[in-house]
Specification:
6-stranded mixed sheet, 31 helices, single chain, 9-stranded antiparallel sheet, alpha+beta
Length: 936
């Protein structure tokens, strides 16, 4: 009892955790409570700012803003069922929770739609015998089929060769293989019933009484391949793999202060108003596939592609001669075909939009479901076609194309219907940007409005559009206008060398030749955003740097997986700063006509759309572009390339069946789960059991843990090729790795560790007699749902300290070291890991790191870049200050980019010297989204 009373308690209100040391408490607060502390710190800053600027008031309370949206008001809950009222009252009292919708609250029912009493268990799924692997003979046959067809995508001839080799060598099958040939394997996969949603063909015939000289595109018959969307949704809802990460009803999510937060689709205002289960669809250009998802799975599940996004159609793309490229009639024909095809595909959902249907859900319960069209993900060209508007107009508002950021009302289906019924086509085209030849497919469905369901698109509007196509291009144009072509080319070459000199960082793509590549991908643009700002900082005016910094802040804020009210306020202010500072491009004649660009204009709608649909990272076209790889590109490569579409459809169907069979076998307990459920423990131990050379930076599955850093399971036995082994004795090791201060720093570390856990005086002459184990890497596991992560938001990155990385040059990564409880960078310092090692003392293992320390420059981030600057700490002799730290005080990796200064880099400068050659560095908060959240 005495030891318990002497323990330190968490200083965060309501937290009951206790700790043996100040170090443990500080790490706990900085990881578990970091987000709430950051929100409080920023909120206080906003209140102070609002007192000085009346045009930026504090966020409105939830009861004004959350349940109402301008003229659209949520229905009165007075007539709601008693259970819903009780739930609503309880959640209103208990702030910091979900407030469920008063009408649609996901009550379980039986298969006939009758509501079950509270606490009733779900009916058992009718699983066959747990040893029944039908249609496969046994577990090994299923795993083999899944391996050769899905995982390695083995060709038919190679499957035949493998089966022949198997039959020749494996006595287990008495001279036979699991499958006679690829045909038997394919037939077995085709006979799987789980996940079976067959493809169908819809033929669209040409108009009757066409003149003989009508163009070929009018006379052609078009085929649209599709799958029944109702059956697809039924299969998704019945997927037990989604259990625990699935919302059964709309909700309002508030933090402990009662402030609204937006996360998944069902947390948005649109779902609350519609009171339905929602669906998400998107289109693409090549082969024009149409994808569908349901809005219930959490965004992390959708981003992880756990069968939450699936192709439901391949739309016909009319072809024509070049002479019709600019023909208005041909353009209108293509648009009409596009809308009529989507309308025909979605028709099976129409009855379920007005009359509830009963569907089984991931938890095994049946529920009454109402369908609705909620969100359509599309880039700007497709939004033009979807909304039936004129090019260069906005699909969300009626602002004029020559002044898109000027006044404009919201576009709605009702407004468009009213205008088209009263005005001529010319007036509609010129004054409202409406193409009245096009009737959006949403007009065929109740409550659907194409203008309302178009969602933000981070990839094409923000990353590829505003950043790559606009800001990067304009910066180059600015340099050329200010310095002339010859000098501008010299500067751009040095900017490329600076980009190439960026130090290593886990998961960060390097640009060995700068940004000089012809074919840009979305990943290229995302990677360049992370390193571009420091590279141009000294070559352009501060206003231009601040313009890019404001845009990057806006982009990173709206990309978060959970967006609070103060985050929206930050995003609004960042956007305002961006609009103010981008005027440098107008003043310098780079953009003399201004900024009426549809993709850039779309940013002004993001705040409202986040409130409507939740965090945009769950509705970004990068999700469907990634799905496009597995649904279109890979199946096309596997085809014979002749009449490939039919082969691609069959490949998709087989993949869905294998996924459905695996989910069923997992649900029966016949296979271990591929994706761990939320109730299972984090898989840090999984990382510890992997050889360090095999570790990669990746998303991982498991429960959320705040932050944890572990060493490789086994110490490194030898250097790469040439060195045989590290000494085990501390003093000898110090000489071997050329770190003479290592013994005294390690003893000081041990003294600090022991004195932190004991109030008595410690012996200042401690000895470390145990063998020293040296490691070349450690794994940091932390909660980073805004980045590519597992379904519980967990990510693992590798911190490396090795004398020869890739057998070429040293690599010593930098880390963030937690020192006190102050939020953001004020409570941390940066360090460069020179050695990872561990030792034992009195039966306790101490995992440690020897680090070169960096100190903060100034009391605030840099005014131009918004990033903190740090410099190496030096002693009086001009040598770098070092310390030995426990791995527990490391939060995660830090990315340091040099402050390059005014001079040009040598052409042969190698990035491996970057962390040694400069006097100061930026702590790159744009290295990834988690860095942006913790470094401020």
């Amino acid at each position: 009892m005495l030891n318990f009373l002497n323990r330190l308690t968490c200083t965060y209100p309501g937290c009951l955790e206790t700790f043996k040391s100040q170090r443990g408490r500080t790490k706990h607060i900085r990881t578990v409570h970091a987000r709430d502390l950051a929100h409080q710190d920023r909120a206080e800053a906003y209140v102070g700012s609002a007192n000085n600027h009346n045009d930026n008031p504090s966020p409105r309370p939830i009861d004004e803003e959350v349940l109402q949206h301008e003229d659209e008001v949520v229905m009165d809950a007075s007539n709601a069922p008693a259970a819903a009222n009780e739930l609503e009252e309880e959640n209103q009292v208990r702030r910091g929770m979900k407030m469920q919708h008063p009408y649609l609250y996901g009550a379980p029912c039986d298969c006939d739609g009758n509501i079950l009493p509270p606490g009733a268990p779900p009916p058992p799924r009718q699983h066959p015998n747990p040893d029944d692997w039908s249609p496969f003979a046994d577990q090994s046959q299923f795993l083999l089929a899944d391996f050769v067809y899905r995982k390695v995508e083995m060709s038919a001839p190679n499957i035949d060769f493998l089966m022949e080799l198997w039959a020749f060598n494996v006595a287990k099958y008495d001279g036979t293989s699991p499958f006679v040939s690829h045909r038997e394997a394919y037939e077995t996969i085709d006979s799987i019933r789980a996940g079976d949603v067959p493809w169908q063909c819809l033929s669209i015939d040409p108009e009757e009484d066409l003149p003989p000289n009508a163009p070929a595109w009018k006379q052609n018959q078009y085929q649209v391949w599709y799958r029944d969307p109702d059956t697809v949704i039924k299969t998704m809802l019945d997927n037990p793999d989604f259990d625990g990460q699935f919302d059964y009803a709309p909700y309002v999510y508030t933090d402990s202060n009662g402030h609204r937060r937006w996360t998944n689709v069902m947390s948005g205002n649109y779902a609350w108003r519609q009171c339905t289960t929602v669906s998400v669809a998107t289109g693409h250009v090549e082969y024009h596939p149409l994808y569908l998802s349901i809005g219930n799975p959490h965004n992390t599940v959708r981003r992880a592609h756990r069968n939450a996004v699936t192709p439901i159609g391949f739309l016909a793309i009319p072809k024509s001669d070049r002479k019709y490229d600019g023909d208005n009639e041909f353009r209108t024909f293509k648009r009409k075909l596009y809308h009529s095809s989507i309308s025909a595909i979605l028709q099976p959902l129409k009855s379920g939009m007005t009359t509830p249907v009963v569907r089984r859900c991931p938890d095994g319960h049946y529920r009454r479901v109402v369908y609705d069209l909620c969100a359509f993900i599309a880039d700007y060209p497709e939004q033009v076609m979807l909304a039936g508007i004129v090019q260069n107009w906005c699909a969300k508002c009626t602002a004029l194309p020559e002044n898109l950021d000027g006044n404009g009302g919201r576009r709605t289906r009702e407004l468009t219907d009213l205008l088209t019924s009263t005005l001529s086509s010319d007036v509609l085209w010129d004054q409202y940007g409406i193409d009245d030849d096009i009737v959006p497919f949403t007009n065929d469905f109740p409550r659907a409005d194409i203008h309302a369901i178009l969602t933000p698109d981070l990839l094409h509007q923000v990353i590829k559009g505003t950043f790559k196509d606009h800001l990067v291009q304009w910066t180059g144009d600015y340099l050329q206008s200010e310095h002339g072509e010859a000098r501008a080319n010299e500067i751009m070459d040095d900017i490329d060398r600076r980009i190439a000199a960026t130090p290593h960082f886990p998961g960060l793509r390097r640009f060995p030749h700068g940004r000089r590549f012809k074919q840009w991908t979305g990943d290229d643009s995302k990677a360049l955003m992370k390193v571009y700002l420091p590279a141009i900082a000294e070559y352009v005016p501060m206003q231009l740097v601040q313009c890019l910094q404001a845009f990057l802040d806006f982009c990173y804020l709206v990309r978060r997986s959970e967006i609070a009210q103060d985050t929206l306020t930050e995003a609004e202010r960042a956007l305002q700063r961006f609009h103010e500072t981008r005027e440098i491009f107008r003043d310098s004649e780079v953009r003399p006509t201004g900024f009426s660009l549809p993709r850039q204009h779309s940013l002004v709608h993001y705040i409202r759309l986040i409130q409507e649909f939740g965090a945009p990272n769950g509705l970004c076209s990068s999700i469907t572009e990634s799905r496009h790889i597995t649904a279109v590109k890979r199946p096309w490569r596997r085809s014979s390339r002749f009449e490939a579409l039919g082969q691609m459809l069959l490949t998709n169907q087989r993949l869905d069946k294998l996924a459905g069979a695996r989910a069923e076998f997992v649900a029966r307990g016949m296979l271990p789960p591929t994706h761990k459920k939320p109730s299972q423990k984090p898989s840090t131990a999984q990382a510890m059991n992997v050889e360090e050379d095999e570790w990669i930076d990746e998303p991982i599955e498991g429960d959320s843990v705040a932050s944890e850093v572990v060493l490789a399971q086994r110490p490194r036995k030898e250097f790469i090729c040439t060195e045989r082994g590290y000494p085990k004795e501390l003093n000898t090791l110090a000489t071997y790795v050329n770190q003479p201060a290592l013994p005294i720093l390690t003893h000081q570390f041990l003294f600090d560790q022991l004195s932190a856990n004991d109030d008595g005086d410690m012996d200042n002459h401690l000895t470390i007699s145990s063998p020293i184990s040296v490691f070349h890497s450690a794994a940091a596991t932390f909660f980073a749902p805004s980045d590519i992560s597992g379904t519980q938001g967990m990510r693992r990155e590798i911190i490396r300290s090795t004398p020869k990385w890739r057998r070429k040059y040293p690599r010593h990564d930098c880390v963030l070291i937690v020192e006190d409880e102050d939020p953001g960078m004020r409570g941390m310092v940066a360090g460069r890991v020179k050695l990872l090692f561990s030792f034992m003392h009195e039966g306790i293992t101490y995992p440690c790191a020897l680090v070169d320390r960096f100190s903060r420059v100034g009391r605030h981030p840099d005014v131009a870049t918004g990033m903190w600057k740090v410099k190496p700490e030096m002693n009086r002799q001009g040598k770098r200050m070092q310390s030995v730290i426990h791995l527990d005080v490391i939060l995660r990796s830090a990315h340091l980019i040099p402050v390059f200064g005014d001079g040009a880099l040598p052409p042969d400068f190698h990035f491996s010297y970057s962390l040694d050659a400069f006097k100061s560095y930026y702590v790159n908060k744009y290295a990834d989204h988690h860095s942006h959240e913790v470094i401020f």
